[in-house]
Amino acid sequence: FARGGSMSTSSGPPSLSSSSTDEQKEDPSVKLSEVVMLRVFSFLNYGQLLFARLVCTKWRRLGEHSALYKGITMQDFLQYSRIIPMHYVRDYVYHLGINQEELKALRQCCREMPIYNGEPGGPYITLAPSGKQSEMRSPQAREGDKEQARREKVKHDREKKLMELKKIWVEEILPGAEKEKKKIVNSKRLHELCIQGIPGPVRPRAWPLLIGNDLRITPELFSILLTRAGRAKRQGEGQALGREGSVQLIHLDLPRTFPMLSIFQKGGPCHQNLANVLEAYACYRPDVGYVQGMSYVAAVLLLNLDEYEAFVGLSNLLNNPCYMGFFQMNMIEINKYMRVMDLLIKDNLPKLHRHLTSLGVEPNIYMIDWVLTIFSKALPLDTATRIWDSVFLEGELFIFQTALGVLKMFSSRIEASDFDETMTLLTHLPPDVDEGELFDAIMSVTVTPKVFQKLYSG
What we know:
There is one protein chain. This protein is mostly helical. The protein contains 26 helices and no strands. The longest helix has 36 residues, at 145-180.
């Protein structure tokens, strides 16, 4: 199987149009029985199964066997919903047993998620803006067929690109960095790779190397902090857990963290993991304590890393002076960054800047939440995690560049809106933000470290 997947000399997935004779020469898995191959496939994650379906020519259909998809979890769904065979995604969503409003909320996290009605295998439907179901195959739906076809093509091209990117990360980038156990340093090539998005299956290895561990946090320290947090809760020593006064605030916030998902709710598979990471951080930095918004950052890390790695990532990420200023609610620092954002809008989007100024809409109205959660509340989760890929490499500068991209993407709409409409848009971005269009807008504005530092120091 491994040899069969490595015979291609091209940078992309092997060609699927070879003759049966060529297939047998290039794919030794054809000599194995179906029972053996099914057992081999059972050891693969969903990303690897997609690759297997591409390279094991004889076993493409076997790669979609129902036995391989019985144990889909919410975390699998969030990470792999784009590449799991569509009928299994559909059935999983159907058997969640949630209503249309909850389905709509879930779609805000998984932009490409299909929404279905009726029995498994039923037809595809859309949701009207009001949240009510549209008529089955209405004229409007038929008119949307071209748009749906375009989206499917974009999705297919994106999947193909992610396979190519995965090969680059796994074979060229990660081995050297993991061997040296050093933080990945920014370069032109890494900038291009991160802006294209790190494939989901690669993030558990890539993110720790991008974030680094300058604080030298160890598993032993994490264990000590968890013990201290447990003791403080039992004894009611709220002040020991930071300026917020009590870990009770953490548990009040947990149900508000990605409320449309079940995994962080009480009884969910990641509820206690999230509580542990946040309580440990409150003990590690009692001068910061727990601050609202922190739970979103920790939750996104937990969707991609284990509990200890998520704590290391959170601690090192928030050690950045920019994030620390925001989470400590240091208004002097926050006002500096808001001034930077205002000047960036003025320089890059002068017409929009004039309109926002005339309305009295200042950056602090929308930027503070965007910074505190790194867009994980404002944008679909898959889009936000792609932004995080570059934030880990570029630093806070990329958050401000992303903010400019969002404003540019909606500039025409904002310029035609009054105060109330603008406020609603900027504080509740549409759930169907086009990821490709957004990243085109982000890359069309330039914010260099030199310019950013000059504006901050000015």
